[in-house]
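G., the chain you wanted modeled:
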Amino acid sequence: MLERLQKRQKENYIVNNIGEIFLDCAREFGNDYVKYNGHFPLADNTIKIEKARNPEFRRFLEVGNIKYTYIHTYIIIRIFFF
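Predicted structure as C-alpha cells:
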C-alpha cells in the first residue's frame, strides 16, 4: 500500500483520490485480517479463564498495570504494527 501511495504522490505532490488505493489493498489483505482477528474471541476467553485459575497471571496483569480492558490491545497489537 505504501508503494502505491508513494507512486501516486510522485504523480502529483498533493494526493487526491486515494480511496481506491485503500479499497484495493483492503481486498488484498482482507482475508488475512479476518483470519487473524477471528481468533480474538478465543484469546479473550483464554485470558478470562487464566485470570480465574492462575493467581500469578492475575497479579501480573495487576502489578504490570495492565487492566483487563487494555489487555485487548496486546492481543490485537499485531494487526496494527505488523
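The CA atoms of residues 20 and 26 lie 10 Å apart.

Shout if anything looks off.
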